[in-house]
């Protein structure tokens, strides 16, 4: 079985008209990574 980290965010869906700009913002602001 897979062990889950308590209170970890593993899925976020955000609406954006400029996907590249949104990814750049969230990567630099929060250190997020994206898997398309």
From TrEMBL:
PROSITE patterns the UniProt entry points to: VOC (PS51819)
Alphabetical UniProt keywords: Lyase
Keyword Lyase among record annotations: yes
UniProt xrefs under InterPro entries: Glyas_Bleomycin-R_OHBP_Dase, Glyoxy/Ble-like_N, VOC_core
Annotated signal peptide: none
Residues in VOC domain copies: 8-36
Gene3D superfamilies tied to this protein: 2,3-Dihydroxybiphenyl 1,2-Dioxygenase, domain 1
GO MF: lyase activity
The name this protein goes by in its record: Putative enzyme related to lactoylglutathione lyase
Protein's organism: Janibacter alkaliphilus
Lineage of the organism: Bacteria, Bacillati, Actinomycetota, Actinomycetes, Micrococcales
């Amino acid at each position: 079985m897979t062990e889950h980290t308590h209170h970890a965010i593993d899925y976020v869906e955000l609406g954006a008209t400029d996907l590249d700009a949104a990814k750049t913002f969230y990567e630099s602001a929060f250190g997020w990574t994206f898997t398309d």
